[in-house]
TrEMBL record:
It comes from Chloropicon roscoffensis. This is Gamma-tocopherol methyltransferase. Signal peptide: none annotated. GO terms for molecular function: S-adenosylmethionine-dependent methyltransferase activity. Residues 228-237 are annotated as: SAM motif III.
Length: 357
């Protein structure tokens, strides 16, 4: 029996078309909640007074524009990224044994997936692989989806992305991947993470690696992660955050706000939040055992490596070929490195479980 690979795109979903935003009916205990999380932060980390995350969210038209920008950015840049860095579109995990070569960086990206799974307590013993299902929210070209399905011999894996190119390319790579068990079904869809097409309680593992920073509505994002997770299932979120404000601070500094806003424009990001904001959102949804960590030190070599490859003749030619959005993204890479070095930007992990019914 050959493994099944599917690539789907809902009609009208390309680049945030009208159906991409259409609301779907929700069912179950995690679909009708109306918690109003009182955030301390708004755009670029600004402290507010008794203002929910929802109040700091972009308007509907702004959200649509942002999502179109995200889709186009990844449509244009993914080919170059894969050409240089391979199928994993995220930071690497670096310990004292990591090799700072292209192959070493690629291995560090695989290591990131394995280390996060280990940190979150995901193992063969914690899953029933022959029945287990995983969703990869913000899947890129499917690297994490394939790796997790193969690692645990899961029955089903689905990756969703706003980029039609990424979904199509993910399907192409998957069809040639001999490591995926023949009994497994793996598919990729052009879908909105804030309006996922799945039934309630669909997945044993809900995985999101470096896509949360793109979400213009963090509360709705967390609600969707919780909704599609099975009771007893696990959610893993790895995302860029701004630092947690210290006691007595009312805001990030003016310098930090300018830094983040420059990055926002290049990478199509909305407001930033802290990991503590995510903790409170998860707790408001009734999720249990919320645990976080800061792996900023473990990803430190990554942006230096990306900058070096962008400055090579191969990288420069690729940037020229990929278009203005990709070039603008490359131009602010030094700001990402600066953000991490200064402590303004954090590479945060969060995991929690959905309670049994």
């Amino acid at each position: 029996m050959a493994k099944m690979v599917r690539v789907g795109q809902r009609a009208g979903a390309r680049h945030g078309g009208p159906h991409a935003m259409a609301p779907r009916p929700r069912r179950g205990p995690f679909s009708g909640r109306n918690h109003h999380f009182q955030s301390h932060y708004s755009q670029a980390g600004t402290r507010t007074t008794r203002t929910s995350v929802m109040c700091a969210v972009m308007g509907e038209s702004e959200q649509k524009e942002l999502k179109r920008g995200i889709a186009t950015f990844y449509d244009e840049s993914s080919t170059l990224w894969e050409e240089i860095w391979g199928e994993h579109m995220h930071h690497g995990y670096y310990d004292e044994t990591a090799k700072l070569t292209i192959e070493g960086h690629r291995q560090a990206q695989v290591e990131m997936i394995d280390k996060v799974l280990e940190w979150a307590g995901v193992s063969l013993e914690s899953l029933r692989p022959e029945q287990a299902r995983v969703v990869d929210v913000g899947c890129g070209v499917g690297g994490s989806t394939r790796h997790i399905v193969s690692k645990f011999a899961m029955s089903y894996g689905c990756g969703i992305t706003l980029s039609p190119y990424q979904a199509r390319r993910a399907g192409e790579i998957t069809s040639q991947d001999a490591g995926i068990p023949p009994e497994s079904v793996v598919e990729f869809k052009v879908e909105d993470a804030l309006n996922q097409p799945f039934e309630d309680d669909s997945f044993d593992l809900v995985w999101s690696l470096e896509s949360g920073e793109h979400m213009p509505d963090k509360e709705r994002f967390v609600k969707e992660l919780a909704r599609v997770c099975k009771p007893g299932g696990r959610i893993i979120l790895v995302t860029w955050c701004h630092r947690v404000l210290e006691e007595g601070e009312t805001d990030l500094s003016a310098y930090e706000r300018v830094l983040l806003n420059l990055i926002n424009r290049a990478y199509f990001l909305p407001r930033w939040v802290s990991v503590q904001d995510y903790v409170e959102l998860c707790e408001a949804e009734g999720l249990r055992g919320v645990r976080t960590d800061d792996w900023s030190a473990r990803v430190a070599p990554f942006w230096t490596a990306v900058l070096k490859t962008a400055a090579t003749w191969r990288g420069l030619r690729g940037l020229l070929r990929s278009g203005a959005k990709t070039a603008r993204g490359a131009a602010v890479m030094p700001l990402m490195r600066l953000g991490f070095a200064s402590g303004t930007i954090k590479f945060n992990l969060l995991t929690c479980t959905k309670p049994e019914k």
